[in-house]
Write a structure and sequence with these properties.
Elements (H helix, E strand, L loop, with lengths): L1 H26 L7 H23 L4 H26 L3 H8 L1
Helix pairs in contact: 1-3, 2-3
């Protein structure tokens, strides 16, 4: 039972970030997504990875890598995607400027 429970963070944490990414990709609407929160989650997951690895979890344990490093990478991808969609020029205004 403990073995199954140790896999939960490795699946749930990256899954949550992936759900947010898919929503962003489908809607192209970053409204309601906090860049600062996702950035802090990414940084915190890197810290948690090193803390867990140093206290006996091991640096190369696949569950640790998935739960913390993959999640951190996905969190930073959320940040990048939100910034990309917020900075994206409005095509309607761009076409009006060309006329």
């Amino acid at each position: 039972m403990i073995e199954v429970l140790t896999w939960m963070p490795a699946l749930v944490l990256p899954g949550a970030a992936l759900i947010q990414l898919v929503k962003l990709w489908k809607t192209h609407d970053p409204g309601g997504v906090s860049v600062l929160s996702w950035l802090m989650f990414g940084i915190a997951n890197i810290g948690a990875y090193f803390l867990f690895a140093e206290t006996g979890g091991g640096y190369l344990d696949i569950r640790t890598i998935l739960a913390f490093l993959l999640t951190s990478a996905l969190n930073f991808w959320v940040v990048w995607t939100v910034l990309k969609y917020r900075i994206k020029p409005d095509e309607k205004n761009e076409s009006e400027k060309d006329d």
